[in-house]
Design goal:
alpha+beta; four-stranded antiparallel β-sheet; three-stranded mixed β-sheet; about 25% strand; elongated
Amino acid sequence: MNRQVAWWRDHVANVRIHGTTHEQPIVRFQAEKLQPLPATPYVLACAGLRKVMSDCRVSWNTNLYTVPWRYVGHTVLVREFESGRLQIEYGGQVIAEHRVLSGKHQISTDPEHYKNIPRDSANPTRDKTAGWQVDPDVEQRELTVYEQIAMGGHVQ
């Protein structure tokens, strides 16, 4: 089949004048001076916007991931890479990284994200997300999660 296609390309397709370009395809192809694709692979990632909840977490595919407390109330960009890495960004800066959790309703916690929470942080500044659609994701948490945070932020 490859031989047949090569014969068709060389004896039919490349010798005719193309109806759209008004050139022979072989002439057009040579003029374009195409370059090979880069050796580094294209990075594949799924991404979405999420709002950081008051317990310093964002929901992604039914699992929860922490971010530093100062981003509570802000909308962040979550990226899941095919390598199994989850990256959370705010303002173009990476603010948290986690391994993607397998399964559902699991929690990935970085204790550093809860350190030095000021006592008056009940109403953090909220950002404006004009023009962006924040994907809805229903949160499901055990009440013990809130109890652990209230007792000093040590969540397992």
